């Protein structure tokens, strides 16, 4: 162990790792366009906030936005195997929010919203629900009823430990800084 934290790690390697982490995050959230992703990062950073608010709070605001998207909630609730398949369910009109059909995959949920799935297409997601709920614990910001195929969005994303939800090393601070400078 050296006293220099970055010794042996070149600038180009750190830059490459940050770019790869950003790409993994975009792909994880349903292969979002770089332009859309960059726009959301800039809007998160531009929001007026007190000077005492540090980068950690900005990370929470950023993750809260993406974790409150309808496609992400369906994926986190284990109704679909991927975010992309959740987007397909939404686009085909099989998802309802507060008994209203929603076809916008980027629909942002509010506290207390009830998401329900169409029972006629139960065979599409029944097998995945059965295999995935054996060991998985749902996030704390979702109350899930697998019998009625409903999800109650509580909105307290901060109370959920999201670091174990990502299958890769999330370098969110570096990603936010990198995309805001481009």
Description:
- The protein has 2 domains: 11-66 and 162-181, no CATH class; 69-154, Structural Genomics Hypothetical 15.5 Kd Protein In mrcA-pckA Intergenic Region, Chain A (Roll), CATH 3.10.290.10.
- α1 packs across α7 and α4 (70-76) crosses α5.
- Helices cover 45% and strands 9% of the residues.
- It has a 5-stranded antiparallel sheet, with helices on one face.
- The model has no long low-confidence stretch (mean pLDDT 79).
- The protein is elongated, with a radius of gyration of 18 Å.
- It contains 7 helices and 5 strands; from the N terminus they run αααααβββαββα.
- It starts with 10 loop residues before the first helix and ends with a helix.
- A hairpin with a 2-residue loop joins β1 (95-97) and β2 (100-101).
Write the layout of secondary structure elements.
Blueprint: H1 11-28, H2 34-46, H3 55-67, H4 70-76, H5 83-91, E1 95-97, E2 100-101, E3 114-117, H6 122-132, E4 142-145, E5 150-153, H7 172-181
Antiparallel strand pairs: 1-2, 1-3, 3-5, 4-5
Helix pairs in contact: 1-7, 4-5
Question: What structural category do the secondary elements indicate?
Answer: alpha+beta
Question: How much helicity do the residues have?
Answer: 40-55%
Shape, per Cα inertia axes: elongated
Strand order of the largest sheet: 2-1-3-5-4
What is the makeup of the main sheet?
A: 5 strands, antiparallel
Low-confidence stretches: none
CATH-derived architecture of the largest domain: Roll
Order of helices and strands: HHHHHEEEHEEH
User: How many extended strands?
Assistant: 5
Percent strand equals 5-15%
**Terminal Cα span:** 34 Å
